[in-house]
Amino acid sequence: MDTKQKDLNIATIKDVLRQYLMDKGFRNTPERYTILEEIYNMEHHFNVDDLYLLMMQKKYHVSKATIYNTIEIFLDAGLIRKHQFGEKTLSTSSYEKSYFDKQHDHLVIYKENSDKEIEEIIEFCDPRIQGIKDSIEKAFGVSIDTHSLYFYGHKKSEN
């Protein structure tokens, strides 16, 4: 993505956040916008510890509590998406930006001899999944707003 488009995207998500904060009666703090911009400059999944370390490295003065609270706001505003890939503990959550991203699914590959330590996360989009979603909507008379699909496994050994 070119710099001009990235700047436009950042401006758009800041407007979405500004409107959300106003609608909910929340404070409009510069820290929230800084955290949001850092997230939207990332190209990968992250957890709160990753984000906190990044903010500290860049000399931003935000507490981990501020980041946790801000993450909850971003989730509710639809600016990020939460995942639990099963890494290390079941309570560990990963996040990714979501405002401009289309729905996609994940293949979680664990390191050899481990069921909790992740080697790689591959994002994919298979058009057949849209067909399944359409069938479910028709069969149950519902409208699906979002979904998440995870496959977990190990790389096959080359013997």
Automatic annotation (TrEMBL):
Keywords: Cytoplasm, DNA-binding, Metal-binding, Repressor, Transcription, Transcription regulation, Zinc
Keyword check for Ribosomal protein: no
Location, primary (coarse class): cytoplasm
Subcellular location: Cytoplasm
Entry-linked InterPro entries: FUR, Fur_C, WH-like_DNA-bd_sf, WH_DNA-bd_sf
Family under the similarity heading: Belongs to the Fur family.
PANTHER family for the chain: FERRIC UPTAKE REGULATION PROTEIN (PTHR33202:SF2), ZINC UPTAKE REGULATION PROTEIN (PTHR33202)
Subunit structure comment from the entry: Homodimer.
Name of the protein in question: Ferric uptake regulation protein
Organism placement in taxonomy: Bacteria, Pseudomonadati, Bacteroidota, Flavobacteriia, Flavobacteriales
